[in-house]
Amino acid sequence: FIMLLLTISTAFALSKPRWDVRPVKVYIPPNHYYTHLMKNAFLQWQDKTKSAVWFVFVNENKQKDAHITVHFVEKNVNCEKENAIGCTHIQTNDEDFYVHNDIYIASKTTRNKIGKNGKPEKIEVPISSEQVYRVMLHEIGHAIGIHGHSLNPNSIMYAYSNNNDNNPQTITEEDIQFM
Question: Cα–chain-centroid distance for residue 69?
Fold first, then answer.
């Protein structure tokens, strides 16, 4: 029974895309107002996972060697949803290992508003640093191997940012188990 359980667990673990390199090399554009936040988000994952995944930051000269590339954009046109603050594009090889992931983080999002004429109109609004940081943590979770979303609204891997500064989303033990 134990051997069968180990076989099933191993098969499940091997069926998920994952990194087969350590450390994971990360390129974050320098001199952007989100650069420091993004580095802190990667280091928070490294700390919370007790270095089960760890990162080395590469400079512009080594950007082509990065496993994860971060892109700071004004508005996310690279995501499926037009009002997305962040998204991650994942590339795997034939053996289902990650080969390169791109994280896109926006500084503005689109909201619907009722205009002066009473008709709905879309407006671009800036995003708070706190919300951007939570989105960064969420997208890094996807980039390191968490594929789905949590049902726990306090989990960083919940599908939506809760914007609740009194009870902010954090990296939970549940999130780490799904890596």
Answer: 11
| Degrees to nearest 5, angle at CA 88 with 83 and 92 | 150
Question: 135: which residues sit within 8 A by CB, 6+ positions away?
Answer: 85, 86, 105, 127, 161
Q: Quote the pLDDT of residue 75.
A: 86
- Exposure class string for 155-176: b at 16+ Cβ within 10 A, else e: bbbbeebeeeeeeebebbeebb
The distance of Cα 6 from the centroid of its chain, to the nearest Å, equals 30
- The DSSP bridge pattern shows strands 68-73 and 24-27 to be parallel
Q: Taking the model in full, what pTM does it have?
A: 0.85
User: Do you know the residue count of the chain?
Assistant: 179
Q: What amino acid occupies position 31?
A: N
Judge whether residue 86 has pLDDT over 90.
yes
